[in-house]
Design a protein that fits this description.
Largest sheet: 5 strands, mixed
Number of helices: 2
Helix content: under 10%
Radius of gyration: 15 Å
Number of strands: 10
Oligomer: single chain
Distance between the termini: 29 Å
Shape: globular
Strand order of the largest sheet: 3-2-1-9-10
Length: 170
């Protein structure tokens, strides 16, 4: 991974592949420093294919039991380029009257999946802001939800996340 005050780190963020890895995901993640999979992998070969592109960190989703993925943690806290990231499969972000699920102290970014619904929101007060990011589902289309992946960029300007369309013609 690249380090230094002017460097930029890019992490591919994917969730809910459910045993299908769209070849476009591999193309979109060419050159990333890290890939984060927020659960419902569906098949261990998905992580093998992703790891051919870049190092992978993954958590276990609710469909990953009995699929050879039981060894994955349910959640993980990690520091990437000095930014504290918490990743889990099922998470309730703040909003809609809810305060959100509790987070480890110092968390700057929360990555989650499960709902297949894209979500990107930053909340909190200056100095304690938290970016919540659900890349949506990168697997086969289900429940009429969009097929998307995500990109997290950490650089001198802070942390940004974006959704990457997997449905449009190339």
């Amino acid at each position: 991974m690249r380090h230094g005050s002017l460097s930029r780190l890019r992490a591919g963020v994917v969730s809910d592949t459910h045993g299908f890895l769209d070849p476009r995901v591999l193309q979109l993640y060419t050159g990333v420093d890290l890939i984060l999979h927020a659960g419902d992998v569906g098949d261990p070969s998905i992580l093998d294919e992703l790891s051919d592109v870049s190092p992978v960190i993954a958590v276990r989703g609710n469909v990953d039991e009995g699929s050879g993925l039981e060894h994955l943690p349910e959640s993980i806290s990690l520091s990437v380029a000095g930014v504290s990231i918490y990743m889990t499969h099922i998470y309730t972000p703040p909003g809609g009257g809810a305060s959100g699920d509790p987070l480890p102290p110092g968390t700057r970014v929360v990555i989650f999946g499960h709902s297949h619904i894209p979500f990107l929101q930053e909340s909190g007060s200056p100095g304690t802001r938290v970016l919540c990011f659900n890349p949506a589902s990168a697997g086969r289309k289900r429940f009429g939800k969009p097929r998307l992946a995500g990109m997290l960029t950490i650089g001198p300007d802070g942390v940004q996340a974006e959704h990457l369309d997997l449905e449009s013609p190339e």
